[in-house]
Amino acid sequence: MHLEEKTLESCLVYDGKIVKLYRDKALLENNSEVIREVIKHPGGVCVVPLTDKNEVIMVTQLRYPHHKVLTEIPAGKLEWGEDHFECGKRELKEETGCTAEKYDYLGCLLPTPAYDTEVIHMYLARELSQAEQKLDEDEFLDVKKIPFEKAVEMVMNGEITDAKTQLALLKTKLLLERENLTK
Which end of the chain is more exposed for a tag (fewer CB within 10 A), N or C? Predict the structure, then answer.
């Protein structure tokens, strides 16, 4: 039972619109009992929309918990059980008005694995076409194009602080460098 914890009890403390909070009792490998607070989240998806001019279509929006406007790539929350690829396509269209002919899966990330079940799936979208933006009723954001290398520079100098955006942009940079090496 090394590096395992057995759940002895699980109690739903809060059942919200986005998250569910559980208070669990768990048994450690040394037979000690501990309390674990776990947020269950349906997960999310983010998309790096890269234009044929090597620009990233990004959004700026207020993030209420931090009371700050952040620069991010388009992203959204999954509905429970929803396919992350379909969600990514939907969020790209809703937030930017774009559709893409080509998608590359960049993997997933666990933003806060100590207490949250959220998994965020990352995609690179290319061969973009512009359509009409369809924001949710309670969604307010601005769309802007940033040269890809400038966006990477903004990650490195701390101007872009959103974790999913940082990781997806840096993984995109590595992917593009590998593609150029194989040409």
Answer: C
